[in-house]
Design brief:
Layout: E1 3-5, H1 10-17, E2 22-25, H2 31-35, E3 44-47, E4 57-59, H3 62-68, H4 73-79, H5 92-96, E5 104-108, H6 113-118, H7 120-125, H8 127-134, H9 139-144, H10 147-152, H11 160-166, E6 170-174, E7 180-184, E8 202-209, E9 216-222, E10 233-242, E11 245-254, H12 264-267, H13 277-290, H14 301-324
Parallel strand pairs: 1-3, 2-3
Antiparallel strand pairs: 4-5, 5-8, 6-7, 6-8, 9-10, 10-11
Helix pairs in contact: 13-14
The protein binds flavin-adenine dinucleotide.
Flavin-adenine dinucleotide (FAD) is lined by residues 23-31, 48, 109, 136-137, 141, 145-146, 148-150, 152-153, 155, 158-160, 197, 202-203, 230.
Length: 340
């Protein structure tokens, strides 16, 4: 039998989650399946709905956010794993060299997919993220499914993690006792269907930096059956072009792979060059060779690998065309911290 707890504060929730067999309950769109399976059914569900710290979407800096949630700014930086964020191709400095928009977005773990899709700051700063959340399932799912749930649930076919990976997102995690650690999304899924969350830990938010001015984002979910079906293969690309030269690019593949993946060394082949059709094709081929795909009822692994070749090429070409037409500030022209 499963019992419910309804905490009204983060410390209360963390204490309840410390009990063996307890699980966080967010939108319950995935948990509903676990409850029907005696082998996966939690003994206690800890509702996150009464926790104001986990709600909402904030445009701002990590420092501003840390004032709102458990933990201090010092804990924030100490617990960050330390990998550069944004643009695996090149260094963080290169990526942000065009002047970042400053701040970024912090998506509360209990923000619903519908709220992310409709939020003015998300649509203005990271429209590709709004679009990805808007395409999940149907309006009933988007009305309750949450940012924390779509990451912690670790469903390999799910869309938002792929886009968040291409955006260099970080996951903010509250630990039992109230300390906080921040994990880059590319370290969040150590193996298929699992996360780095330890027993009793809770995702409180996801942070996404605002990309440099002129960065464009594209997400292409390839669905083999109806539009309501989950994605067979998802390709996300962020790219910035300055004077015809690629100044930063990041590709992420998901839904058809055991966990969302990207390869910084392949992405780097685009940077510092004027990408043409041949280079785009070479990068798509390199991804098709490097990626390990899932074999399931939707498609074989071999078919998916071919689709990686096709959709990386098409998504890159579309992003390149859009980036080339998007004014990108040069480092000299844009003061650091200017909104883009
Ligand atoms: C009909 C249907 C169609 C769908 N179509 C799509 C689709 O097209 N694309 C797509 O990407 N996805 C799709 N999904 C999957 C959907 O995205 C997930 O079910 C949903 O995002 C899970 O979020 P939730 O808030 O409901 O999580 P819950 O079901 O509440 O929780 C899921 C898991 O995460 C844990 N958890 C939740 N929140 C936290 C937290 N803050 N910290 C730590 N652990 C937490 C829970 O304990 C549980 O183990 C579909 C689902 C349904 C039911």
């Amino acid at each position: 039998m499963t019992t419910w707890t309804h905490p009204t504060s983060l410390p209360e929730a963390l204490a309840a989650l410390a009990e063996p067999g307890a699980a966080a309950a967010a939108g319950c769109t995935r948990l509903a399946f676990d409850l029907a399976d005696p082998r996966r059914r939690p003994t206690r569900l800890v509702s996150l709905r009464g926790l104001p710290d986990l709600a909402g979407i904030t445009a701002g800096t990590a420092a501003e956010w840390s004032e709102r949630t458990a933990g201090t700014a010092a804990e924030w930086s100490e617990c960050t794993t330390g990998r550069p964020v944004g643009g695996t191709a090149g260094t963080t400095a290169e990526w942000s060299g065009g002047g970042t928009a400053g701040g970024g977005l912090v998506l509360g773990a209990m923000a619903t997919h519908g709220q992310v899709a409709a939020h003015p700051a998300v649509r203005a700063t990271l429209p590709v993220l709004a679009e990805a959340f808007a395409r999940v399932g149907n309006v009933r799912v988007r009305g309750v499914a949450t940012v924390g749930g779509v990451l912690a649930g670790a469903g390999y076919a799910w869309d938002p993690p792929t886009v968040l990976l291409a955006l260099g997102a970080r996951v903010r995690i509250a630990r039992p006792g109230g300390a906080v650690r921040v994990v880059p999304l590319d370290e969040f899924y150590p193996a298929p269907g699992t996360t780095v969350l330890r027993p009793g830990e809770l995702i409180t938010a996801v942070e996404v930096d605002a990309p440099p001015t002129g960065t464009v984002g594209r997400y292409q979910p390839f669905r083999t059956r109806s539009v309501e079906d989950t994605t067979c293969l998802g390709v996300a690309v962020t790219m910035r072009v300055v004077d015809g030269v690629c100044a930063g690019a990041r590709i992420a593949i998901g839904s058809g792979t055991p966990v969302p993946v990207g390869f910084g060394d392949i992405d780097a082949e685009l940077v510092g060059r004027a990408p043409d059709a041949a280079r785009i094709r070479a990068v798509a081929d390199a991804y098709a060779d490097a990626v390990v795909c899932v074999d399931d009822l939707k498609a074989s692994a071999a078919y998916r690998a071919e689709m990686v070749r096709v959709w990386v090429r098409r998504t890159l070409a579309a992003a390149l065309a859009e980036a080339a037409a998007t004014p990108a500030a040069t480092p000299a022209a844009t003061p650091a911290g200017t909104a883009g």
